[in-house]
Amino acid sequence: MENNRINEIAKMVFIAALIAIVLSALRIAVVEDGNFSAYLPDFLQENRQTNYNNSRAMLLRTPERRQTAPEQTHQNNPKIKSGLSETISIPIIPPMCFNGSSRDAILSRRRHAIKLSRIFSDMEYEPDPEVFGIVDGLPWISLEGALHFTKLSPDERITGPSRESVGILNPELLYYLSTSENEDAQSEDFIPLYKDFYFIPYKLTYNPSTNTITAYIQNDKTENGTYQPIFLSDTNAHDLGYKYAYMAESENVGFYKQYKAENNTLKSGIKELTGYYTHGNACGYEGGCNNYAPYWQYYNYIFLKKLPARFTIKLWKTKPANVEKTADINFQMIFH
């Protein structure tokens, strides 16, 4: 009888070992296919930057492509808060470092930002998985890293507050701005931008009578500047449910001459919003980072000719028949 018990135990151990081998093989296959987020170490689920480097070996397995989010597709329907009758001031949340944060932690911050919004808190909101294709534990390109990309090391490019946090934490910034030094863009037609200019508004308002959000940006320091194109990141508008845009008005705002000639600017016609966050190489860091994409939307680049400068973008949930149609919301930026 004792021998039978030993044999039974041996069989159970053998079967358990066999199952473990099979599961391990399956796990490796899944990880190699790029869907590895469920297998990351538990510590990566915590919002701590210091744990990022420990996961880099696994993250290097990630293919350089847009990540597929686990949620089902969700379409937000933006809704302006009821009861607004006068122009209101909107608090601006300072940028923060997202390095090493889990996807869940960042989406939780995003939901909280919507809940606190003085404009969008009435809407039923869930982060659009088409927009938030981010990966657990990765670094994010910083404000400094984006602005001085060519002058910084890969480690320096991810040090400090994350550029995309400006948009994620401030949903009312339907477009938020970024730039990088670009000597090729120098032109007598455009003013230089201050060398440490991050384009974070100092004031944000909403006027219910015109249905317009206005962001005020100060750029009165032009010494030691470079002629830099400004990129309009549209992920906030896209995520909230605004899908089409047109620059209805502008003053002292220019565009790349090539794309203006091709009628491929925000002023030349209605454009579809396509911005999203993904695992990419915008930071130039080994293993990649979470960043905005795509940057080939050349119609989203502008230059400032002189100050003051401004533009107003009309946004719609569905494609309008023409640019004259009343916008579902307007977004204005004023530079001075």
Written overview of the protein:
This protein is an alpha+beta fold and 336 residues long. The chain folds into 2 domains: 1-33; 42-335, no CATH class. It is 22% helix and 19% strand. The chain contains 8 helices and 14 strands. It has helices at residues 2-32, 56-59, 103-116, 143-147, 154-157, 165-168, 235-240, 257-261, and strands at 88-89, 132-133, 176-179, 203-207, 212-217, 230-233, 244-251, 253-254, 271-272, 276-280, 289-293, 301-304, 309-316, 329-335. Strands 1-4-5-14-13-7-9 form a 7-stranded mixed beta sheet, with no helix packed on it. Strands 3-6-12-8 form a 4-stranded antiparallel beta sheet. A 3-stranded mixed beta sheet has the order 2-10-11. The model is unreliable at 19-71 and 183-188 (pLDDT under 50).
Structural class: alpha+beta
Mean pLDDT: 77
Strand order of the largest sheet: 1-4-5-14-13-7-9
Instruction: Please state the CA-atom Rg, rounded to the nearest Å.
Output: 24 Å
Largest sheet: 7 strands, mixed
Q: What's the structural domain tally?
A: 2
Order of helices and strands: HHEHEHHHEEEEHEEHEEEEEE
The end-to-end distance, rounded to whole angstroms, is 91 Å
Shape: globular
Tally of DSSP helical segments? 8
Low-confidence stretches: 19-71, 183-188
Please report the total strand number as a whole number.
14
